[in-house]
Design goal:
39% of the residues lie in helices and 13% in strands. It has three domains: 28 residues, no CATH class; 104 residues, Aspartate Aminotransferase, domain 1; 208 residues, Type I PLP-dependent aspartate aminotransferase-like (Major domain) (Aspartate Aminotransferase, domain 2, 3-Layer(aba) Sandwich). The chain starts with 5 loop residues before the first helix and ends with a helix. α5 links the parallel β3 and β4. The strands form three sheets. Strands 2-8-7-6-5-3-4 form a seven-stranded mixed β-sheet, sandwiched between helices. By secondary structure, it is of the alpha/beta class. The structure holds pyridoxal-5'-phosphate (PLP).
Length: 389
């Protein structure tokens, strides 16, 4: 727990920005339906840029914060056995009941307090649609802003402070003008920073006083060793979003869940289409929930690798690596385009972050296997030599 005092925390106050992620154009230009004479949709949907991701191929893929390790073969075989026994012609559970029961036992949390969906992205979209308003930080995980915008939900984002500190005072003030849903990734994405427990406590208490729902997005919590289940247990204004896409190594399977008070889950569940979790996804989840120990050893390996990467990057002549409590590292470079292209030329794919406010020059690299990380470091230092020459 950090020793930050309330006044130190308050010093990180910042102005409010709206739709921060859209302050600069994203790569894709939306097509205009007007040209086609189709006027069927709500006008605000015309102007939306698509999700800021462009698929690229490279031998070493460190751009999506996936696990570099596939599901252990033994578990894959068990999944395949289950799939063979599955009747593909039958619909799955209405609300993923069996998965929720298993997950409830795994978490020691009531099944009525869980919503399972094909990806936590869908749960973000649902929460943004259901919300009276959405409050966010900036920069932040772009799908919060995007979802609010698609849903026409009023949206505000408060800029992070120096070194990506939580703007606690400004957030507490914003919670006075409510209620609504506050999305807070913790550890934070894309800055990789874990916020202090006191700060989260203040927000949770304020949410309880003002009727907000504080949604802690714990997509990366295993890499930080953090867990806000105890807080959610005592405060129904706190909900947790989790995903199977990162530490569990199941990005392609598409599964995420919400942990919240049963009353909150009831509302959210209504937005998930009936039979929404595919039967094959459910079988994978049932298998890993029977044998979850592989996750811990992968997390340990990736945390050790992350620390090695961070130590090595500290000696980089021109790049600054920010501390990380996740499976990725945010790097500030003199020129994000040059860094991205320079790495790509050496077979390494990372993600640009420089289009977000406050992240000028930044790229993000996922922690890979030891060999992938070694090759990444080699490429990163080779670039410095080229630019110094
Ligand atoms: C903070 C955060 N939340 C949610 C997600 C989405 O996860 P899912 O794969 O479950 O949709 C991601 C994915 O990168 C993320 O970084």
């Amino acid at each position: 727990m950090s020793g930050a005092t309330r006044s130190q925390i308050y010093a990180n106050r910042g102005p409010v920005v709206k739709y921060a992620i859209f302050s600069q154009p994203l790569t894709s230009t939306p097509l205009s339906l007007d040209n086609r004479g189709v006027k069927a949709f709500k006008p605000h949907l015309q102007e939306l840029p698509s999700y800021p991701y462009q698929k690229s191929e490279a031998p070493i893929k460190l751009d999506q914060n996936e696990s570099p390790y596939d599901l252990p073969l033994e578990l894959k075989k068990r999944v395949l056995q289950r799939l063979q026994e599955l009747n593909f012609n039958r619909y799955p559970d209405l609300h993923a009941e069996e998965v929720r029961q298993r997950l409830a036992a795994f978490l020691d949390w009531p099944a009525e307090g869980l919503v399972v969906a094909p990806g936590s992205n869908l749960l973000i979209q649902i929460l943004a649609q259901a919300a009276e308003q959405v409050l966010d930080t900036a920069p932040s995980f772009p799908h919060y802003a995007f979802s609010a915008r698609v849903a026409s939900t009023p949206y505000r984002a408060i800029p992070l402070g120096a070194d990506f500190a939580l703007p606690l005072e400004a957030l507490l003030e914003a919670l006075e003008a409510g209620p609504g849903v506050l999305f807070l990734p913790n550890p934070h994405a894309p800055t990789a920073r874990l916020f202090a427990e006191e700060e989260i406590q203040y927000l949770a208490e304020k949410a309880a006083q003002t009727g907000w729902l504080l949604v802690l997005d714990e997509a990366y919590h295993q890499f930080a060793g953090s867990d806000y289940l105890p807080l959610a247990r005592t405060n129904p204004h706190v909900a947790l979003l989790r995903t199977f896409s990162k530490a569990w190594g199941l990005g392609g399977i598409r599964a995420g869940y919400l942990v919240a008070a049963p009353e909150v889950c009831q509302v959210v569940q209504n937005f998930v289409p009936p039979f929404g979790l595919p039967a094959h996804t459910a079988q994978v989840l049932l298998t890993v929930l029977e044998s979850p120990t592989y996750v811990q050893s992968i997390v340990q390996t990736l945390v050790t690798e992350r620390e090695k990467l961070l130590r090595a990057l500290q000696t980089h002549p021109t790049w600054q690596a920010y501390p990380s409590q996740t499976n990725f590292i945010l790097l500030r470079t003199p020129d994000a385009e040059a860094a991205y292209q320079g790495l790509l030329r050496q077979g390494i794919l990372v993600r640009r972050q420089d289009r977000y406010p406050g992240l000028e020059g930044c790229i993000r690299v996922s922690v890979g296997t030891p060999e992938e990380n070694r090759r990444f470091l080699q490429a990163a230092f080779a670039l410095a030599e080229v630019s110094h020459a």
